Amino acid sequence: MAGRMRIGDAAAAAGTTPRALRFYEQRGLLPPAVRSASGQREYGPEAVTRVRVVRALLALGLTVDDLASRTHRLDLLAEDPPRSCASDGDFGPDTFAPVVERRLAALDAEIARLARLREALARHTGAEAGSDLPGR
Amino acid sequence: MAGRMRIGDAAAAAGTTPRALRFYEQRGLLPPAVRSASGQREYGPEAVTRVRVVRALLALGLTVDDLASRTHRLDLLAEDPPRSCASDGDFGPDTFAPVVERRLAALDAEIARLARLREALARHTGAEAGSDLPGR
DNA sequence: CTTGCCCCTGACGCGCGGGGCAGGGGTTAG
DNA sequence: CTAACCCCTGCCCCGCGCGTCAGGGGCAAG
Questions:
Q1: Three-state SS at B63
Q2: Which positions of strand C lie within 7 Å of protein CB atoms?
Q3: B120/A contact by beta carbon, under 8 A
Q4: What is d(CA A134, CA A101) in angstroms, rounded to the nearest whole number?
Q5: What string of pLDDT tens digits covers the 136 residues of chain A?
């Protein structure tokens, strides 16, 4: 009853493109799609949900490789009754927490770096005539 | 009297690599280096100063293309007596200001974006069980 | 003279999440 | 039956500031 959509419709339903779906499948973020007799991928609503999960996590800044190494977690997140979420907070700390924490730290570092950069740039445009250029 | 250094020494003196100097030259950030009889580049101290100027501006987040389109400004900045700086603040607002302002705006936007991302990520790891995934 | 380091040019690699295209086949409404 | 889409795979492209070969020549010391 479910596998009616072809890739274009499924992609549109998930807010992305066919190219992205094939890419996610190739990289292991999605299980290999069911194929029709002629080899065309078919998607049901649960697959669309799964794609949305993937996209949400990517939008949070996790990388494709982060997700590829935790596919079983994605499986759980994409279930209709989120049964596994009983054991953990939101994403499942036991597997996602490390990568999320690394990502948080990287974000903090990057934010701080950009803030320093911004300040330095502003200083130099606003200043009268700094003796010379920024040593480091 | 000046053009004694070869590229390796000049690069080291400016705190970078030979590859970078050739790259800058190729992209028009540096004037074509004087060549020895056998075709090797020769650099004097003023060339090293010029490289330092380029690197300082790059370190502030300006792009190679930004600098390539303002080489005459780089010339002025790299002079020993900074005579042209009489007419302007630090970098020469009349030419650098637009690109610096664009860069500042881009930095602000990027910082804000990363901050939002960071917050969203933190929310999801810390929260109990948000009803569903972040719509946008 | 040889050894060993330096220099030359030109071309490809990188990270990352896909976009775009080429060449071929499926599918569905008129 | 045919037109108009859609889909398939496989491949190169992007940005950006260089790093890293590959293949060949220079230059000072022993």
A1: coil
A2: 6-9, 16-21, 25-27
A3: yes
A4: 33
A5: 556 899 999 999 999 999 999 999 999 999 999 999 999 999 999 999 999 999 999 999 899 998 998 888 777 775 665 555 444 444 444 577 888 888 899 899 999 999 999 999 888 876 544 444 454 4
Whether residue B112 lies within 8 A of chain A, CB to CB, comes out as no
Tell me the shortest Cα–Cα distance from B36 to chain A, in angstroms. Answer: 31
| Burial of A43 from C-beta contacts in 10 A (0-12 / 13-18 / 19+) | buried
Give the protein-side footprint of strand C (Cβ within 7 Å): A 16-17, 19-20, 23-24, 36-40, 55, 58, 63-65; B 6-9, 18, 22, 33, 39-41
Contact, A21 vs A7, CB < 8 A?
yes
- Which tokens hold the place of A108? 């903090």
Residue where the block lists tokens 């020993």: B80
Question: What long-range pairs does A27-32 form, CB within 8 A, spacing at least 24?
Answer: A27/A64, A27/A68, A28/A68, A28/A71, A29/A54, A29/A64, A29/A67, A29/A68, A29/A71, A29/A74, A30/A54, A31/A71
**Structure-token pair, residue A21:** 């779906």
State CA B24 to chain mean position distance.
Answer: 10
pTM of the model: 0.81
Among A94, A7, A93, A115, which Cα is nearest to A51's?
A: A7
